[in-house]
Amino acid sequence: MMAPGRRSSTFTRLLRHGFTDPSAAERLLDSVELAPMRDDPVLLDALGATADPDLALLGLVRLAEAQDGRTARHELLDTVIAAKPLRDRLLGVLGASAALGDHLIRHPRDWQALVTYEPRDLHPGVEEFERGLAEATDPVSLRVAYRRCLLSIAARDVCGTTDIAETAAELADLATATLRAALAIARTAAPDDAAQCRLAVIAMGKCGGHELNYVSDVDVIFVGEAVDGADEGKALRAATRLASHLMRICSETTIEGSIWPVDANLRPEGRNGPLVRTLSSHLAYYQRWAKTWEFQALLKARPVAGDVELGEEYVAALAPLVWHAAERENFVVDVQKMRRRVVENIPVAEVERELKLGPGGLRDVEFAVQLLQLVHGRADTSLRSGTTLDALNALAAGGYVGRADAVQLDDAYRFLRSMEHRIQLFRLRRTHLVPESEADLRRIGRSLGLRTDPVAELNREWKRHASVVRRLHEKLFYRPLLDAVAQLAPGESRLSIDAARERLVALGYADPAAALRHLEALASGVSRKAAIQRTLLPVLLGWFADSANPDAGLLNFRKVSDALGRTPWYLRLLRDEGAAAENLARVLSAGRLAPDLLMRAPEAVALLGDGDGAGGLEPRERDHLEQEILAAVGRAGTGEQGVYAARGVRRRELFRTAAADIVGSYGTEQSPAEADQGALVNRVGGAISDITAATLAGTLRAVVRDGWGDTLPTRFAVIGMGRFGGHELGYGSDADVLFVHEPREGVDEHEAAKAANAVVSEMRRLLQAPSADPPLLIDADLRPEGKSGPMVRTLTSYEAYYRRWSLGWESQALLRAEVVAGDEELGRRFIELINPLRYPAQGLGDDAVREIRRLKARMESERMPRGADPTLHTKLGRGGLSDVEWTVQLLQLQHGWAEPGLRTTRTREALAAACAAGLIAGEDAAVLDEAWVLATRVRNAVMLVRGRAGDTFPSDGRELGAVGRYLGYGPGHVGDMIDAYRRTTRRARGVVDTLFYGASV
After folding, report:
1. What 3-state class would DSSP assign to 673?
2. What global pTM score does this model have?
């Protein structure tokens, strides 16, 4: 008797052989069914070699129990012990697939399909599978025969007799045989239909490419023709009935389950088009209406069943169209759409577990290879393979892809496909998700030969191969371009210059010759600088191609590199700080403004790094900016030099703000685009307003010091107005201001006014003077009496004017007034002076409200530029900035005296306060806020893209596309952007009509 607490030697041996539940395994080994082989050491060794020994042992016991009588059971067990090929195959399948184990239990004699071990059995083709399905006469028997054939494929797979490519090819051949058998059953059921038509079944997708999964939709296209003398319409209807029946035979669930869905949605017009078309109808569609992705799908078209001659005619007729798809007008835009990963429909929790569609997934490799085939297969027929790995090898052999990169991607693709196969094989369910349970991961890892620590090893290998695939655009698309121009390894196959031009065009470059010149200038030679550029450029080119103007991105990069190429830190920053290189690529290809700011002082590229890639782009606090500018002014020899120093800081900070805005809007590989558009608007508006205020403070200090020393004869303050006072400045905004002064004690008022006017004049001159830095335009037109009034007034003069002459529009304008520079105490008293005007006690009277509405209506009719589309004008158009701001300001004028939250210069803040106070419904407030944010973003985008301010969408296609990218719209979706803008502003105008113009206001 065994001592308490001690484990049996069998228990220990089971643990050593990979069992996770040795106690249950001991009981199974002691069962009556396994009595003849209980003590045979061969059995434990064979079970230990399987993916899941516990599952394999349970399956063997169940299979033995299912045998019909003692004789059949002994036959099974004797063969398992005596025949190693059967033992390895049977136990291998039982340990890897619970679903095939269940099939064997339902059909206990099917294990004998694994006994034969002849040469032809090692690599069966369509003929062998057709023989295996020959006796099937109905859907149920077809399913049984199909799974019997699947047993043999899975056995060869799990035992390592076939590799992943051979297994996928066998699965495609079995699918071909199954489609033929299903069509035969359909024809037998409807002989009259079969007699009227010729029907060809064209395999598409993975079946057509000879690389099918264990469980996958089988994509097909049907081609039909009338037999000689038959009516074409009747023949097509007959062919449609046959095709529909074929699909049901394979797809419908029976007592034996289903085989797989047959999917015909790749046909012309998709599910809205006829199921069967004639060859001429197919040809007409592809010549006139087909999109690029449809030609991409045709790369894998292969006739598999039905009328062979008709199927071959179909492929031959469409081949010329497929291989000239790259010459189509919209090819570049379509390619950009294909290259942009579509993961929006994948639940967030599943993205990282998606083997097919997730980052670094199988779809990436397949799409990339297919794109290169479409581009280069026109001239090189060796690339025209429907099988991904064969096409990848052909691309490497022809020099279109580097051999080492092709080998890496081949390994990664094989590993990921093997994972996919093992996941699907377990339950025979269509899935591409990596399971989360440790038991599942352990089984998958062991099935792939990872035995030491299966779960950890599997995760490590999976992540390693996925990271290779994530960089595939660098490896497949761009690195060969560098090899073509650098030519550092004579004798190796490489991309020809013509092929390089073709590829650049396909990737979105409008001037491939210029692009190649830039690449040659940057990457040629044996210097350390050129070597680093050859490492960086393949990655950068991919990021440039993701923009609306890749040519500009590459040209700007060359300019920056020429300016900084001899600076030791520049290339090191891009090479060693991953975020810096991607941030630079985004900034250089997003439009004109940011590159122009950078070119004036290229050393600002250092802001794009800063370790984690974020700190350098964070907007600086106004106090810190003001301290830096005042210190620079203090060091300057003259006032003019001081202002130039202040403008230099402003230029750098404008670049920082624009770069952060672009990176936040585009997103990076490490962080997605900012989802909160309002936060982006607030950040830009606040940053530019702070930069402007600090620049004015520094300029004021420089001018005063240069002309009067430490003390000006009069106190002087600058009041921000409009967007400046509201902390809502855009990249192209002027600085709206008022100037106020107050003579110091004992100073003559005339002398004080003369000094104040001289300060204003000199500030405006120096801030607009030609220099390498962008000018800052000061606009004082909102002052009393407008352009006719004095540029600067005393506080007493403002008080007298506002008391006697102030108009309603001036009270409205003062809602945005805020002190931005100069004497703080004087500024505070100015604000105290205007508060009763902008927040009148008891609100506005009816006459004042009518006057505001009249002014607004007049502005809409008179100030809209001639020929402008009122639905797309961001400032004065329907539901634009003016509509929202006037509505909010009317609420402030009416209720600001009673609601402290409304006493703010910021539009969004005031809108939120009005909603909180119950003055506007939450839904209406959200509509107005969305429209205001969107219109502001469009204005910012136009300035970033064009380098000059504008209130409407650009008419140039590339510029419009760049605005779309900034707003989050992919290539080819500018129409959606325009529609969304019109839809958003139309809703806002409806709210404005009610709140601003309606009786409810």
Report:
1. coil
2. 0.79
